User: Fold this.
Amino acid sequence: MNEKILLTGGRGMLGRTICRVLGNEFEIIPTDLPEVDITDTASLDSAVKKYVPQAVIHCAAMTAVDKCESEMALAYRLNADGSGNVARVCRANGVRLLAISTDYVFDGSSREPYSEYDMANGGNTVYGQSKFAGEEEIRKIYPENSLICRISWLYGFGGPSFVHTMLALADGSRPELKVVADQVGNPTSALAVAVKLGELLKHPEFSGTVHLTCEGEASWYDFAVEIFRQSKKDQVVIPCTTAEFPRPAPRPANSRLRKDKLREWNLPPMPQWQEALREFLDLESGN
Ligand SMILES: NC(=O)c1ccc[n+]([C@@H]2O[C@H](COP(=O)([O-])OP(=O)(O)OC[C@H]3O[C@@H](n4cnc5c(N)ncnc54)[C@H](OP(=O)(O)O)[C@@H]3O)[C@@H](O)[C@H]2O)c1
Assistant:
């Protein structure tokens, strides 16, 4: 019989992609609002008692980075307290926890990619600070059987994501598109993250923090150019600066994450971002 894996936020972009990628190998139970609310410990606990999963993958979060700035209390309730609730329920029921976090826990000021050994500080946004507070809750409540999996620049089935936004904008109505070229990161396919989470589920000996972004790096400009190249869209892209696109939440200049833990644990590396993008575009377009 397949192992049962319960997802929080299971109808979100990553949750949907996990269901599709790991659905044959595991029995995936995608829970989401309204039936399982991570701010309501009783609803979480009764779901875990009902389904008796071997592990929980915690995807639920307030992910709208700019909205977190104006709704700070809600961001903390979901991303910090909610994660604490998930950790408590997993601990009480003896269930392993894989919790999804983000590059935003770093402030992006380093010139080098961030390792799992670098000290995070929550960065410069409410989103990053609330997610970091959630990480700290998990580390405090359930260090012995939890794994914090940081990802970044994510795209997955159905979006919303940068890939979906770029493809929608390239509808032939814009002679040129300005895209930020002074922020760098690791564009990351939710398919590749799901595959790696599937591998980690088979290794209960691993706990702590792990980075799961695709290999290779790009600016948003490079990413856009590659999206249009691979999808054969004839869209002109012009590089611009972050200062030209002010946002309520400041974006980190450096979002690159080093995958030291995957190497130490002798697990296969994440795929190169361009290959992962190709696989995603083929599947998303039904090719
Ligand atoms: N997307 C990215 O670029 C990115 C990058 C780095 C890290 N991450 C992390 O990856 C994880 C998954 O992200 P995603 O892109 O899949 O996000 P998403 O599409 O926004 O999915 C999050 C899901 O959580 C649900 N949710 C919200 N509040 C909840 C609550 N109180 N109880 C239960 N579920 C609740 C949401 O429902 P509603 O839609 O109804 O609110 C949604 O279905 C998050 O932890 C995020 O921080 C994402």
